[in-house]
Amino acid sequence: VPPTAVELPDHDFIVSKPLPVRRAAPKQKGSTHAYGTEKTEYLMDRNIHKAFPVIIRGKGNYLYTKDGRIILDTTTGAAVSCLGHGDKRVIQAIARQMETGITYLATSFFGNNTVEALCKELINGTDRQMARVYLTGSGSEAMEAAVKLSRQYFYEQDQNTRRVSYIAREGSYHGNTLGALGISGHVARRAPYLPFLMKNVHHVSSCNFYRQRQGRETTDAFVARKAAELDAKFQELGPETVIGFVAEPIVGAALGCVPYVPGYLKAMRKVCHKYGALFILDEVMCGMGRSGTLHAWQAEGVAPDLQTIGKGLGGGYQPIAAVLISKKVFDVFSDGSGQFVHGQTYQGMPIQAAAALEVQKIVREEKLCDNVRIQGDYLGQLLKQLLGNHPNVGDIRGMGLFWGLEFVKDRDTKEPFDPKIGVAQKIQELALSEPHNMTIYPGTGTAGGLSGDHVMLCPAYIVTKEDIHHIAHTTAAVVKEFFSHGL
Ligand code: PLP
Which helix (H) or strand (E) holds 202? Predict the structure, then answer.
């Protein structure tokens, strides 16, 4: 009998032996152990009619449900976790900050050592390529702040600046608030709100080698084609009207872990700088270690002018995100009005900063980015071994602990499934049901036909080789079982 939630032993925190999750939990009265058993009565969420498994405890890589199941957490929410659940060091850091009595901070009145220490840690983590940190409560808010910072950057230099537009990418997701959604190229999430979204945002194609490669095109030729497309967009809009180009180095939610092609970031930055525009990277999902380097751009050595981070920054312990600001941008504010015309009540965030500082210190001191690279390579290798020839798996791609599988009706034509079927959603539900008991993050062809259904795997950075083995084999079992039923 597996441990129940109340009598969990401490030692299953970091697992280095075959996992217990395969054992069926004892059924409780009224429990079906299918996907979910309880509907929410008061919480307003996206899926109003769905019944969910109810989780009551988290530890390491595991979640424990009210009806006695043990779930391997392979998505960590939406890719937030570095250290897994319930790390006592982070809990204690939060408690210590609470005990100081400084739980909020009006940054226009006061400074705070915890907040400053976090900012220093973050700047050091960019190899001092970035100069300042603007803290926010979510990735969407960080994108809002990046939009305002980039516009004010030009306004500081000339109040009559003609720089009013952005170039972003199709099949991108930058957040759900109106400014961030306005930049995004996620067709389905934009649709209900189109009348309210910024008009002066223009999209170029994403960087998706699987879907966009022409014939036997090399990566160099592919990158050159993307740079030419961006250059042409600048020319079409008038280069003096463009504030910046915004991109996710590895596309998360919209396309399912689609990484940049080597050379792409450098080529795109070159085009931006040729026209005096800013190069803005959204690393809310792919950053803070998830790709195997602390920042995804570090693998190419291509620092942006502005960068957003989130998710892994607080590691899931507190909601916190940020904009990292280069010296070039900061100097314009410093030499200009000396003010960023923005701000929110809770922006000082000492509690969130305490949590994030502890998470970041542990990631650095325990060299967890190395583990992300090692285990990530192993995960990719296993997924390709187990599913590389499956007739409905079109592409297996990723970097670090950020892997995506894209499903197709036909591998040769790459024809996606009808989004109405909800292939990815159904795969997620199957994975979370008995006996698989594992989270998988779904994306159901919602990016406007730019990709098919996909799922993402993004476990915490503490995963072991055994965990990866289990994740890959469970994923393969779920995918095979799902498609064996026929659609
Ligand atoms: N940018 C990217 C790349 C994201 O993946 C997300 C969220 O998934 C956001 C921005 C928005 O972040 P949040 O959900 O914290 O507002």
Answer: strand 201-204
How far does the centroid of ligand 1 lie from the alpha carbon of residue 298, in Å?
20
Determine the average pLDDT of the residues in 197-210: 96
Q: From the CA of 251, give the closest atom in ligand 1.
A: 3
Ligand 1 pocket test, candidate residues 138, 140, 172, 344, most atoms within 8 A of CB: 140
Q: Give the position, in ligand 1's atom list, of the atom nearest the Cα of 140.
A: 16
Is the pLDDT at 313 greater than 90, yes or no?
Answer: yes
- Tell me the best of 80, 144, 174, 291 to mutate to test the pocket of ligand 1, counting ligand atoms within 8 Å of each CB and taking the most: 174
| CA 190 – CA 177 distance, rounded (Å) | 10
**Binding pocket residue ranges, ligand 1, CB within 6 Å:** 78, 138-140, 143, 173-175, 248, 252-253, 282, 284-285, 310, 321
Concatenating the DSSP letter of every residue in 7-62 gives G--GGGSS--S--GGGSPPPP-TT---SS--EE-SS---S-TT-EEPPEEEEEBTE
Query: Chain centroid to CA 111: how far?
Result: 30
Instruction: Report d(CA 134, CA 70) in Å as an integer.
Output: 38
Q: pLDDT (tens digit, 9 = 90+) per residue, 50-94?
A: 888 899 999 999 999 998 999 999 999 999 999 999 999 999 999
Pick the closest to residue 255 from 382, 351, 397, 154 (CA basis).
397
Residue owning tokens 């008995």: 434
| Whole-angstrom distance, CA of residue 250 vs CA of residue 264 | 11
| Residue 146 CA, ligand 1 centroid: distance in Å | 13
DSSP string, 249-317: SEE-TTTSSEEPPTTHHHHHHHHHHHTT-EEEEEETTTTTTTTSSSSGGGGTT---SEEEE-GGGTTTS
| C-alpha 284 – ligand 1 centre gap (Å) | 6
- R_g of the chain computed on alpha carbons: 22
Ligand 1 center–CA 137 separation, angstroms: 11
Nearest-5° Cα angle at 40, 38 to 46: 115
**DSSP structure class, residue 410:** B
ipTM: 0.99
**How do residues 265-305 score in pLDDT, each as one tens digit?**
999 999 999 999 999 999 999 999 999 999 999 999 999 99
**Do the beta carbons of residue 329 and residue 149 sit within 8 Å?**
yes
Answer whether 485's CB lies under 8 Å from 225's CB: no
CA distances from 466 to 81, 186, 289, 291, 438 (A): 18, 36, 21, 20, 15
The dihedral built from the CA positions of residue 268, 270, 274 and 278, taken in this order, carries a sign that is positive
**Neighbouring-strand partners of residue 165:** 242
